[in-house]
């Protein structure tokens, strides 16, 4: 098979942040360096990234073709597609797929493959004098697993409200090689479990469409966004601090590069971006192991919990507020809810351990 360069962020999307449609300015977060005139053709791509499914690239191309037209219409009219229209559904589908198809989505699969492989092989490795830490175990097609669940994720995301931000400030929206950012303002402060699942209460999904337009998907049962409670789905931003909040999410969430338009006009931009990049979390996956306990047949068993912690910021956009009834719930209860308000399986809002349940002491916590 001839190696092909597969783009996990579409070229048409990046062109929206370019001045000439061919080249783009980027900030490499690891090197802390601003680079002008990078070729869009070679951004956000890997060789044979989707080789496990030969028809996947053409499927993406079909969706991207329609989405490109939808985004162009949004930019020209400062308006979203009509509620329950086919175009709004396609915009949602594009957002979900964009989240699932990136190198960032593949990375947790590699981390967990490495962790479980070394856990299973630990004893035999010791017997053979092999230090497993000298090796990294990866899946051949690590992005295949998140993409395999796209249909389920799309169904879960379908109840999210959609809101458009139109930027009228001098500070433009930026994007990254992981442009769809998941956050949960409602659950900020919860660090003992994940709260970024697509069914979680309080989920927020952010995708910049261009330097002047950004889409927010949000839990309408928790948040009021602008005049969303009155049926309005567009907010015009005139406070640069709101733009900064959205841009900080991109900086914190990016894997390698942040992309921006017309950066050459600000000589202090590289320094500013370095300061923002210093806030990036060192790790993005947490693995919690419990102590081993004996089960009925005498074997030892333990629990493993892995999740993606929230990005390290207190998200504050001026027109996003938490509804009064949602605020009444104590913080620890919020992580136990689905978006329809039901308790999650084995959820418990009393603060007490249910009858018959066991507590497992934590053995160690690994941040990857």
What can you see in these coordinates?
The chain is an alpha+beta fold. It has one domain (5-367). It is built from ten helices and 18 strands. The chain has helices spanning 11-15, 56-77, 86-100, 103-127, 144-148, 150-157, 240-253, 269-277, 324-327, 331-334, and strands at 5-7, 23-28, 33-39, 45-47, 161-167, 175-176, 181-183, 204-210, 213-218, 223-225, 234-237, 257-260, 286-290, 293-294, 300-301, 304-307, 320-322, 362-367. A five-stranded mixed sheet has the order 7-8-9-5-11, sandwiched between helices. It has a four-stranded antiparallel sheet with strand order 3-2-12-6. It has a three-stranded antiparallel sheet with strand order 16-13-18, with no helix packed on it. Strand 14 and strand 15 (300-301) form a beta hairpin. Helix 2 packs across helix 3 (86-100) and helix 3 packs across helix 6 (150-157). The chain is globular. The two termini are 34 Å apart. The mean pLDDT is 91.
Short overview:
This protein is 30% helix and 21% strand. With 368 residues, the protein is of the alpha+beta class.
What is the oligomer described by this structure?
A: single chain
| Fraction of helical residues | 25-40%
Overall 3D geometry? Answer: globular
Q: How much of the residues is beta strand, in percent?
A: 15-25%
Number of strands: 18
Radius of gyration: 22 Å
The secondary-structure class comes to alpha+beta
Contiguous low-pLDDT stretches (5 residues minimum) are none
Biggest sheet record: 5 strands, mixed
**What is the number of independent domains?**
1
Order of helices and strands: EHEEEHHHHHEEEEEEEHEHEEEEEHHE
- The total count of helices amounts to 10
Compute the separation of the termini in Å: 34 Å
